[in-house]
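User: tokens in, sequence out, please.
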């Protein structure tokens, strides 16, 4: 039976062996690794993950038709969770250290990544993830660039990120209309401390909701009657959101937490 990919779930199955090999090489899977694969599709990448003999493989697949295919194909070699990745509780990740691999559904890829970045229960050795190329460019963007955005800041708070490879549409079935990029995320050894990660989400959302406006407006929204010292952060009220580097955003979050109690 020919499996028909579901457009509503953003299904594009990776079949290019060369790209799959590059993902496996970047993953550097060892015998102690606990793998979490998101969006395994028909299991082309899963097959190679199994061949690396990791300690455990968990796959998250929302589509019940696909999970039945995976069950028949791999039997008891993997554990399958038939759920939307975004519905998994934070506790699912606690007291584990995953190596995460995934061809993330493009329509929710930034939501998945930001949820992981803001989850203090999540511990990973690394993540190898595929995104629409335009989204990948936003994730790895430099300050003062057009692509610099909220997801840049959330990602670079906890991870050092590098590009593994670009992926052409013909590497998938069906062919998407966009190009893709695989990124590697390595956890930073020292992470800037924030009391509540939701404050970073809130502050970046307020700043970038009007990215062309001067930062004076979001600062006034956030700090209201509280005195905000621009000189302390070496920034100007006339700066735009893309002019502030990641470190400055993290320090603004600290200031917000200190002043708002």
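Assistant: Sequence out:
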């Amino acid at each position: 039976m020919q499996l028909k990919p579901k457009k509503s779930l953003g299904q594009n199955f990776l079949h290019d062996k060369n790209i799959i090999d590059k993902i496996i090489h970047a993953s550097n899977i060892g015998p102690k690794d606990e793998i979490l694969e998101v969006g395994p599709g028909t299991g082309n990448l899963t097959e190679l993950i199994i061949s690396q003999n990791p300690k455990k493989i968990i796959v998250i697949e929302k589509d019940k038709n696909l999970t039945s295919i995976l069950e028949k194909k791999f039997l008891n070699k993997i554990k399958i969770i038939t759920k939307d990745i975004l519905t998994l509780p934070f506790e699912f990740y606690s007291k584990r250290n995953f190596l995460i691999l995934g061809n993330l559904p493009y329509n929710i890829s930034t939501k998945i990544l930001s949820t992981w970045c803001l989850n203090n229960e999540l511990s990973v050795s690394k993540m190898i993830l595929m995104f629409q190329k335009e989204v990948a460019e936003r994730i790895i963007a430099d300050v003062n660039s057009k692509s610099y955005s909220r997801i840049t800041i959330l990602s670079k708070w906890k991870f050092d990120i590098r590009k593994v490879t670009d992926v052409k549409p013909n590497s998938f079935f069906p062919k998407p209309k966009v190009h893709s990029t695989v990124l590697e995320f390595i956890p930073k050894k020292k992470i800037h401390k924030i009391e509540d990660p939701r404050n970073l989400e809130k502050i970046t959302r307020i700043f970038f909701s009007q990215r062309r406006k001067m930062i004076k407006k979001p600062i006034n929204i956030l700090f209201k009657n509280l005195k905000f010292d621009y000189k302390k952060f070496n920034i100007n009220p006339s700066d735009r959101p893309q002019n502030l580097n990641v470190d400055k955003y993290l320090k603004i979050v600290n200031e917000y937490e200190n002043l708002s109690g």
